[in-house]
Amino acid sequence: MLILMLFLLSPFIAAAHTHTHTHTHTERERERNLPSCCCAVNLHCTRSWLCADMITIPDLIRKKRDGGQLSDDEIKAFIQAVKEKTIQDSQTGAMLMAIWLNGMVSAEIKALTREMMSSGEVMEWPDEWKNFMVDKHSTGGVGDKVSLVLAPALAACGCKVPMISGRGLAHTGGTLDKLESIPGFKVEQSREQILEILDSVGCCIVGQTETLVPADRVLYALRDITSTVDSLPLVTGSIISKKGAESLFALVLDVKFGRAAICKDLESATELAQMLVEAGNGLGIHTAAVLSGMNSTIGRCVGNSVEVIESLETLKGNGPDDLMELVTTQGGLLLVMTGLMSDLSEGRKQISEAVVGGAALSKFQAMMEAQGVNSDTAQLLCSTNADYYSVLRKAKHQLELKAPADGIVLEIDGLVLAQVLHRLGAGRSKAGEPVNHSVGAVLLVSIGQRVTKGDPWLRLHYEDLALTPDQRNHLESALTVGADKKIQTQQKHTLVEKILPEKYQ
């Protein structure tokens, strides 16, 4: 597989206050001395933000439907109406579809992202933290456990990581679901608790608060039911607005492409990465993007509990190469952007040493305890030769699938594995559904490995008494065994090119 890095930096973020505080949208408009009528948005008539003309919601929809470019004021009026629920869902859905059909230019995406961010609270941090506030975001993959390793590694290197993550939807797993497989781990934390954890530990992994980017929650729910989830401008606005609300100094984005990713090819992934980087820089965040292939899996484990186990093993120095490559590359970029390291090679080395040397594991243990896990439980999970299933939920049944023939493992289809696991309970089909943390799969072979007919290649953890024939057939179809290695190079997470500003080349 291929990783292509887009590394673009922006001007420094404005200095943060020396205490945690939030600004509401109303406070910002008051500070800018905008007239109060600028907030008057309703179903039938939306005043423009300049208060010179009357603009209706249908006017805005029609303009975008016909391929027009929305002004900053028009986008501001639309997002305000969404936030205040003075626009009908059908009208919002129509606007989303118009954006999906006609796209947005850079200026529109920048305005959309800014107004979504400003629809709720924006966190600020103590002055001494401002140059070290970092985070990462992945567009979603199979077995993507990078956050569980990267956040504590960055904290061990001197960064502050207020990581706001999400839950799984469809075939992609969610970081919060994985962490909640650890008994007692609380992903819901107040702003005050987040500040306290960052002060004592240096990292936290939490869910989105009710007051953070409320417009995004409305838009995302409607995108899901109007088939506009894959609109690149809307994806960009959703991701970057939330990261902007964290008041970050630096951000790295892992944009995935392939069968198991939202972007099916490198071209569309590159387009999305460029949008994300430009939008992040537009908010004053030093932003880089990494493009990585997502046809197979990251590491060997897919699920919730099993991915926590693999993450802990990685933090103990036993991680798979592809996972460590993603962790060290993304972490190294963030260390360079914060100025803690002078170049990517040194940054990657620093992250690797934090993981292999145990400093990141200590931070992960401290984070677990700070977020509600019993200290004995946290200590057991982080101990050498830990009995993980004395703490984590174990599935009732395990099944090993056998290789159908002699040969080389050419391909392991991550999308197929994720789809079957999703149906077995590891994922959810709609927001709010529970997940079964014990369901998962462990790969027993790797791409490029020679196997003999009958060798076990997958261990399935599941709860039902029996798999359906269709589920078993689907799982077995994920493995391709052949006589050559022509697919092997396409499956690896190998760094082959990096694009850096001249200063860092």
TrEMBL record:
> Under which main EC class is this enzyme filed?
transferase
Spans traversing the lipid bilayer? none
The metabolic or biological pathway listed in the UniProt record of this protein is:
Pyrimidine metabolism; dTMP biosynthesis via salvage pathway; dTMP from thymine: step 1/2
Give GO terms: molecular function aspect only. 1,4-alpha-oligoglucan phosphorylase activity; thymidine phosphorylase activity
**Any Pfam family matching the protein:** PYNP_C
Gene Ontology biological process: pyrimidine nucleobase metabolic process; pyrimidine nucleoside metabolic process
**Organism superkingdom:** Eukaryota
Signal sequence: where? Answer: 1-15
Outline the extent of the Pyrimidine nucleoside phosphorylase C-terminal domain.
408-482
Instruction: State the reactions this protein catalyses.
Output: thymidine + phosphate = 2-deoxy-alpha-D-ribose 1-phosphate + thymine
Q: Which GO terms describe its cellular component?
A: cytosol
The EC designation for this entry is: 2.4.2.4
For this protein, the record's PROSITE patterns field holds: THYMID_PHOSPHORYLASE
SUPFAM superfamilies assigned to the protein according to its UniProt record, in alphabetical order: Nucleoside phosphorylase/phosphoribosyltransferase catalytic domain, Nucleoside phosphorylase/phosphoribosyltransferase N-terminal domain, Pyrimidine nucleoside phosphorylase C-terminal domain
Looking up InterPro entries in the UniProt record yields:
Glycosyl_Trfase_fam3 (IPR000312), Glycosyl_Trfase_fam3_N_dom (IPR017459), Glycosyl_Trfase_fam3_N_dom_sf (IPR036320), Nuc_phospho_transferase (IPR035902), PYNP-like_C_sf (IPR036566), PYNP_C (IPR013102), Pyrmidine_PPas_bac/euk (IPR018090), Pyrmidine_PPase_CS (IPR017872)
Q: Which family does it belong to?
A: Belongs to the thymidine/pyrimidine-nucleoside phosphorylase family.
Purpose of the protein: Catalyzes the reversible phosphorolysis of thymidine. The produced molecules are then utilized as carbon and energy sources or in the rescue of pyrimidine bases for nucleotide synthesis.
Q: Which NCBIfam families match?
A: PRK05820.1, Y_phosphoryl
The subunit structure is:
Homodimer.
Q: What is this protein called?
A: Thymidine phosphorylase
Gene that this polypeptide is encoded by: tymp
